[in-house]
Amino acid sequence: MDLTDKRKRKPKExxxxxxxxxxxxxxFRRADYKKPIWFCRVKVPGAKxxxxxxTKTTDEHEAFKFADNxxxxxxxxxxxxxELNGKRVSAAISEYVDTLKLDLTxxxxxxxxxxxxERVAPSFGKLMLSDFTTANIIDLYDHMRSIARNGSLxxxxxxxxxxDLKQFFSWCIEKGYIxxxxxxxxxxxxxxxxxxxxxxxxxxxxxxxxxx
Length: 212
Fold this sequence. Notes:
Layout: E1 14-20, E2 25-30, E3 38-42, E4 51-54, H1 60-79, H2 89-100, H3 108-120, H4 134-147, H5 155-175, H6 197-211
Antiparallel strand pairs: 1-2, 2-3, 3-4
């Protein structure tokens, strides 16, 4: 039995609400929480829609600070020509991976890229592409080190991750999701041997095949 059209959501009762910046910031607390926290809804001039988030606090002063910061960040995003509600990193990765899987005869390097991206996508949580920085890349590498068997990553492994991420961000530019590729941290090679990306990936693929 389909109850989709018959069930009606009960309206969320608002305990209290506050309006700031001539209505551009709207704070409210809902009655359906045991410990009512403040939510905020931010409207930015010149942008379609609004941004709605939980401030994760019961303190009105802290809630306003959160909402005001969100307003300023959203305003900068709109002035910079970006969408108010941009795309999440995890959602973009999922879309990119789907395009890679369309290749019926993918290269081994593509299979590795898909596996890597699917593995790291959940770690980005709600992070937006427009907010992605070098710090996030460093955090990702630290995360990968923490889950590695020996607690470390070889420099050539980090180089491979960087290549995969750069390919992903280049695709994001083509889709219009971002304007530039984030700056990547420098990686020191463990030897003085000068090898190019093709040689590096060939060496990595050879080692992986031995493990499969």
